Amino acid sequence: MDRGTVGSAQSGRLLVEVREEGTSAVITPAGELDHHTADLLREPVEDCLDRGFARLVVDCSRLEFCDSTGLNVLLGARLRAEEAGGGVHLAGMLPVVARVFEITGAEAVFTVHDTLEAALAGSGAGGSGADGAGVDGAGAAKSGDGASGPGGPAADRGE
To answer: Which residues contact residue 26 at a Cβ distance below 8 angstroms, ignoring those fewer than 6 apart?
Structure first.
């Protein structure tokens, strides 16, 4: 299913891998996404968008920390992807990262999936937010589905 690694970037605290999966670019940051490492995510995200991938799936299952700078990278990517008729889908968030999205309200502007597989399938199953543009090819809802609660996305219950 993996169509090959397109690229990767690394520092001591963050590794970012990128691969193509059908019409989506799958971006997997591993480690800590913060002020010092944000460019390691920003550059491959922008490269994917420049190469014509309007649908980005960010596999957050190995992301251990995300601060406001990292969040801003993802929000900027979302705006660019939506302008191109796509979107940014977040998958497999660990509870500590999901909490940042919940506290800031950012979960409401992304489609959040429990697993990478669900994100690639375009399924909103178990997701806590819907991107307001309704850009998901599977017809994502235009408003929140009410699934977000005190625990945020149920990202930790998957396989």
So the answer is: 18, 19, 20, 57, 59, 116, 120
